[in-house]
Design a protein that fits this description.
There is one protein chain. The protein is α/β, with parallel strands linked by helices. It folds into two domains: about 90 residues, ATPase, nucleotide binding domain (Nucleotidyltransferase, domain 5), CATH 3.30.420.40; about 140 residues, ATPase, nucleotide binding domain (Nucleotidyltransferase, domain 5, 2-Layer Sandwich). The protein is built from seven helices and eleven strands. The strands form two sheets. Strands 6-9-8-7-10-11 form a six-stranded mixed β-sheet, sandwiched between helices. A hairpin with a 2-residue loop joins strand 2 and strand 3. Helix 3 packs across helix 7. The longest helix is centred in the last third of the chain and has 28 residues. The radius of gyration is 19 Å and the shape is globular.
């Protein structure tokens, strides 16, 4: 089986594949201070709860936008799984034709999402990932990665608002019944929820004009399922897009090998 790990600034998403099938998946908080042993214990506990033995993992691939965590995770892989992990970055085959001014600047998460989208859907494509940042990736009809847009994420913006406005309380991110709030909490929920729906639709519509054609808009990330039903531009939600991309990149770099 293949263990895939996507390290984000807020959460780490893990998945176990048997060939092309995603059998298990988990989401844990990102903690830059955790050691290799602490991450090893966390994975061992997750595996135990699902009845999986560490020895069942035959391969390991990581993408990360948190560089300080990579050494701990790589050491954990060697110590607990006796495996040298593949790490998404320079030198690893992705099959992605990046047409940005400096391709090395593209985050591993955006590369992995684009690889998955191109393998699962027909271009042109726009991939929207709701994470610590909300990222928009544009893929041309020829399959070229053109670039995109990076905006503050929903949680990031909301936390900033609460910290800077002393009288505003912390609120749950939910869709309110109406845009015109009748109290402070419903007004905040309206502004946060519908504000981000508007942001997504506005950026996507402008990207569509530049891309041309009729691109498919794929959303992923923790809050994609809440935003997509209200958005007028999102066509599909794939919560496991990044994990699928990691599986595809692993297969590109280990042709003929089955896990």
């Amino acid at each position: 089986m293949l263990l895939t790990i996507d390290v984000g600034n807020t959460n780490i998403v893990l998945g176990i594949f048997k060939e092309k099938d995603l059998l298990y998946h988990w989401r844990i908080s990102t903690d830059r201070e955790q050691t290799e042993d602490e991450y090893g214990i966390i994975l061992n506990n997750l595996f135990s709860c699902s009845g999986i033995k560490l020895t069942a993992i035959k391969a390991f691939i990581i993408s990360s936008v948190v560089p300080p965590l990579l050494p701990a995770l790589c050491h954990m892989s060697k110590k607990y799984f006796n495996l040298q992990p593949l790490v998404v970055g320079p030198g690893l085959k992705t099959g992605l034709d990046i047409r940005m001014d400096n391709p090395r600047e593209v985050g591993a998460d955006r590369v992995v999402n684009a690889v998955a989208a191109l393998n699962l859907y027909s271009p042109p494509l726009i991939v929207v990932d709701f994470g610590t940042a909300t990222t928009f990736c544009a893929i041309s009809s020829a399959g070229h990665y053109l670039g995109g847009s990076i905006a503050p994420g929903i949680g990031t913006s909301t936390e900033g608002l609460i910290r800077r406005a002393a009288k505003l309380p912390r609120v749950e991110f939910v869709q309110p019944q109406r845009v015109i709030g009748r109290d402070t909490i419903s007004s905040m929920q309206s502004g946060i929820f519908f504000g981000f729906v508007g942001q997504v639709d506005g950026i996507v519509e402008m990207m569509k004009v530049e891309l041309g054609g009729n691109p498919t808009v794929v959303a992923t990330g923790g809050l994609a399922g809440q935003i997509a039903p209200v958005s007028r531009t999102i066509n599909l939600v794939n919560q496991f897009l990044t994990l699928e991309g990691l599986r595809i990149i692993y297969e590109l770099n280990t042709p003929g090998e089955k896990v």
